[in-house]
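Notes on consecutive records. When two proteins share a document, each keeps its own sequence and its own token line. Never mix them. Below: protein one.
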Amino acid sequence: MATAKYKRVLLKLSGDFMAGESGFGIDPVAVDEVADQVKQALALGVEMAVVIGGGNIWRGSGALARGMDRATADYMGMVATVINVMALQDSLERMGIITRAQTAIEMRQVAEPYIRRRAIRHLEKGRLVIFGAGTGNPYFTTDTAAALRAMEINAEILLKATKVDGVYDDDPLKNSAAKRFERLSYIEALNMGLKVMDSTALSLCMDNNLPLMVFKLTPPDSLVRAILGEPIGTIVCK
């Protein structure tokens, strides 16, 4: 069996991966496809935690444009992430994977409250930990939550799954001449204004020297290849 390059990783998933082709809501087939990739990766012996966004259920930008309070919109987004956490957890457990869900906003009927030492202990016991509700605070994105949780659990790398195979100097879906980067420094990514992660999350990674890999979640072995250390995406590091 191939050897994983990393012992402990945090995977950041967009809520869009839960929606499938519809782009909205939860598609059980799409959820199972994501779960299967996670199952394959865990078979390598890696310890893994996951942070999921909630954009497939709620996007606050439209509500903000109509005058909704920013904090209210952000809290609604946090609750949406918990729905995705529950869907992914259910799919994984049907595949025989032992999981634990933790949320930054207490919802004891459906998940444990986030406790750093407990999360680390779950990982040490071989359980997959899924974090929901972002940081528990408005004005912070799930990208920032992913960077924060990755550092708190001492992950060796933050893996950000996207729909493109890395970081480009322009949108590759609109510009066929867009240049793909194999490696970037944190400062380069910040100064160039590249859509890697939001600036708060990227600054957290930089300040704490946490490597970031941006990669495409297709084909179905992409997550395994990323954990094996294959150059399938863009590495952002010191």
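Protein two starts on the next line and is unrelated to protein one.
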Amino acid sequence: MRVRAFLSFLLITALATGLAYAAPAGQIRVEVNLVNLFATVRDKHKAVVTGLKQDDFQVFEDGQPQEVTNFSADSSLPITLGVLIDTSGSEYFMLSALKDAASRFLGRVMRKGDLAMVMTFDTDVDLLADFTDNRSMLDRAINRAQINVPLSGSIVAQGPFPTSGGGGTNFYDAVYLAAHEKLASEAGRKAIVVLTDAEDTGSKVKLQDAVEAAQRSDTTVYILLVAQDGGDQVVAKKLTEETGGRMIIVRSERNLEEAFDMISEELRNQYTLSYTPSNKVHDGTFRKVRIEMKNKDYTALTRRGYYAPSE
């Protein structure tokens, strides 16, 4: 299903009304003000650590220790996943490998109860498959992804915002829409996996808007950086580090498979920690969060904060 006009309309509406900042959807609040953190733990050799207990973790909010009231190491918790594929001209030579690897990744990571969607982005954003557990439908959507390279100097009128030709990439728009319009209303563990060079050349929103949309919807962003010239690593690191994900540089098809295996392993071996903040003020501010491990050879990967509820 192609919904360029629909997604463009959603984006314009959000920007025009300020919903990107005013809407409560996706904030970790709600009536009980419970903050949920999903954390992956690795040792000094970068291996995933399993079998840890609640006492192995210490949670801090704005530097203040917090009491963890709920803890789980259940690897069977459902995942809601967005797969975003860069179909701009810069990915022309890698697209076939990207599609094959993305299909195999979903085959490995998805279990009963999981949902996934598929989006592509170039001069616009396409939703090729909405949330579903139907692997065949997802595979068909991935296979429909194709490079969109406008003729030089032309104007591509995809929705109300014409974009100059030359292979524009609306990367920030894609992450923003995936997080704010699709994942914000979903519950549980949520992640976006993006295959891109992270170079944005035409988005209506800014990088910080995309980061905040992911933070507000409690969505972890992983970026597989696929670029012959190295891509924009600064952008990729900001998006992933601020949301508790990771950037993985991909230089070959084999490396691509290894990257998907790493993400699959992390998603399936996350710890869940919940706490009620000691700061009860409903001021809508961003609260910084960090997890420290009692074993200093271990490092916990989690999002860097959340937005407090507003009155």
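For the record: The longest strand covers residues 35-42.
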